[in-house]
Amino acid sequence: MKRVLRYSLIVLAAVSVQTACTFIIGKKIAGDTHVRNESALQGKKIELPFRIINGTFLGGNQRNYYGNFCSDSLNLIWKHELGSGKTIVTAQAGVEIWAGAGWTGQPLITEEYGVQYIYQGAYDHHLKKIRLDSGELVWQYTFDDILKGTGSIAMFPDAADSAQRLVIFQGSRKGLQYTVSDTAVASFRAVSCFTGNEIWRMPMDHTDCYSSDVDASALFLDDRGYIGLENGYFVSFDPLKQLRWNDSSSRPQLLHKELIYSNSDKAAHGGNLVTEASPVLLGDHIYIASGCGHIFGFNLSTQKFDWDFEIGCDIDGTPVVTSDNCLLIAIEKQYIPGHGGVMKINPARKPENCVDWYYPTGDRNFSSWIGGVIGSVSVNDNYRKDNDPYLAAFTGIDGMLTVVNYKELTSDLVAGPDGKTLYPKPHAVFIKEIGPSISTPIFTGGHLVAAGYEGVRVFSHEAFSGFTETDFRAGMFEATPITHDGRVIIASRDGFLYCMGSESVSRDTVAPVINVPIDVVQITTPQLNNSGNSIHAMLTPHVVLAAHLRQRRDSLAIPEMPTTTDVIPELFGDIFSTSTWRHSNILAAINAKRDSLAAIASIAVTSQTQNEIVQGTGSCFLIAGVFRVKENAENYVKRWKDRGYPAEMIVQPSGMHYVSIQRGETEEELLLFRNKMQKTKDPSPWVWISQE
After folding, report:
1. Summary mean pLDDT of the chain
2. CA–CA dist 59, 285 (Å, integer)
3. How far apart are CA 332 and CA 316, in angstroms?
């Protein structure tokens, strides 16, 4: 019997320098932000049969380029199965299985001998080279653990070994078989893009940090690489200089090595002193955000750190350079009394006077986070026309996608991360509730792409009409997408890499990036269009919008859910099963096709007393869990029946076992039922509507 599935989600949870394959190095090309170790190639005319289209996280050394353009649609072009792999996050949780790819996980793109390729790190322990046109795997290189971060690709045209003329530098977790103090940990490696063979691996020293992983993307200048490691070291290295490490492996020659945390940081953060963010180039300095709560500036002339701005919070997001030579910093709400959010700083000034503005986000318990911005900020600098506003976009744990004009301030003053220092606040241009996210939204020509734990969305934005959502694909996304030639490419936690959009869209058909700030004071009465849980304000005075948002966000405050200790629903069927605290908060199910159904469960805030529960009828179901193993589903049914709910198991053609706790005639009926639930320890259900 054929079933048509409909779902309803409940909120919880490189532009190439030229078209040919010839590079002329020696002058700055507008919009060229690629990792190409330019200084070493100055003055040379190099004709190469390969080029880098997107070579590092967020597109270049200033972290502000995200691909050329996409279309309005998210039609599936192809998907590639990334698989799943084991990892250990904590000793208490033990071995977990993670599927697909997640934060930061942005695809890299090259063109080699006329064919375009994607380089993607995955949770199955492999770095993969995949054909962009078909999604076909070319090669994969095996690491010791899952790959979370995005790699960096650099060209070395004069390399004696032709296989080393295009190299990817990729980090991973420490290795399933190792402890954090094991001298065999080597979680940063160089691999030939052409052959997939290892060139070297960088060993990790044991420090006061609790991690020896590598999530960051390296930055390359003058044939020298720079990167922050999760053990707290900032290092520079010779990319191709190999020294013997052991009988089977080489290591790179380190040119600089320095711990960037202090004893006071250890006292404040314990072992959470890791550097997960990628370094960024601004002027003659490299800036890097650290989990010890600082933004550091490394002077390239002196090869020393000479700038230090202490914020105090954990900082995961990578700083992004703006057109006015400032940095946008994502602030997580951890170790600070104030709200998390986004801060604009000017490192040309002294640290105590460097803040231009602060935009706080709402607090919300989600997974192991309590608020702020985990991903990075994107800007439209590489896509603006002359009269366009200067936009910055970010998504928070509070579920809000926010776009601000980073050069325009309101009259409001808001408390900063310390909860007391007051800063100006930028004008909000667009705000929409999309659900919690740690992905970085990205601008392209005329579009904004934003992903999160509910799915991925495409917005168009044109003159005088603001942002309009043009397509949505449900799913569970932590990674950052990239756009290329009308397509959106993004990895999912469901185990697949997706290529979506249109293969026929030409650059000329894409609308330009045009928008108007909403923070314009009018004499007329302001209006808000609140449709579909979005807050789309057109020319609304900021004070009105701010008041509306405060009320809206206050209503989103959700208490932390205790960990359940008995049956934990499996995630993503046969390829993802875990009982960790973080992932027990995120119930999701994706059917065998994994294209037609995805669901994220919210943390329940209300529950119904047992004597009020009535057996329902109809073809709408409240689904509390999805299982691959029948026995687990049966145990979960029993658990809900013991609590007075009319639970039942529904077996799908895909082999998955859905556990329903109530039926209803309509979606609205079940939503009302769900909203009456009070203080349950279980994640609240999502609505599934089955029709013949």
Report:
1. 80
2. 18
3. 7
Q: What is the DSSP letter of 506?
A: -
Task: State both tokens at 144.
Answer: 């010791």
Q: Which residues pair with 649 in a beta bridge?
A: 659
Distance separating alpha carbons of residues 301 and 284, to the nearest angstrom = 7
List the beta bridge partners of residue 299: 285, 304
Parallel, antiparallel or unpaired: strands 422-433 and 400-415: antiparallel
Q: Is the pTM of this model over 0.85?
A: no
Go through 216-243 and write b for each residue having 16 or more CB atoms within 10 A of its CB, e for each that does not: bbbbbbebbbbbbbbbbbbbbbebbebe
For the chain, helix (H) and strand (E) counts, in that order, are 5, 48
What's the maximum distance between 2 C-alpha atoms anywhere in the chain? 81
Confidence of residue 92 (pLDDT cuts 50, 70, 90): confident
The whole-number pLDDT of residue 666 equals: 82
Q: How far apart (Å, rounded) are the C-alpha atoms in residues 688 and 385?
A: 44
Would you call 675 helix, strand, or coil by DSSP? Answer: helix
**Are 250 and 244 spatial neighbours (Cβ–Cβ below 8 Å)?**
yes
Output DSSP code: residue 492.
-
Distance CA 50, CA 15 (A): 14
The helix or strand, by DSSP H or E, that contains position 214, with its residue range, turns out to be: none
Quote the CA–CA distance of 84 and 102 in Å, as a whole number: 12
Give the containing element (helix H, strand E) for 639: helix 630-642
State the burial class of residue 353 (Cβ atoms within 10 Å of its Cβ: 0-12, 13-18, 19+).
exposed
Beta-carbon contacts of residue 359 (< 8 Å; ≥ 6 apart): 341, 342, 343, 402, 404, 414, 425, 426, 428
Task: State the pairing for strand pair 341-345/355-360.
Answer: antiparallel
Task: Determine which of 104-113, 184-193, 383-392, 422-431 has the lowest per-residue pLDDT on average.
Answer: 383-392
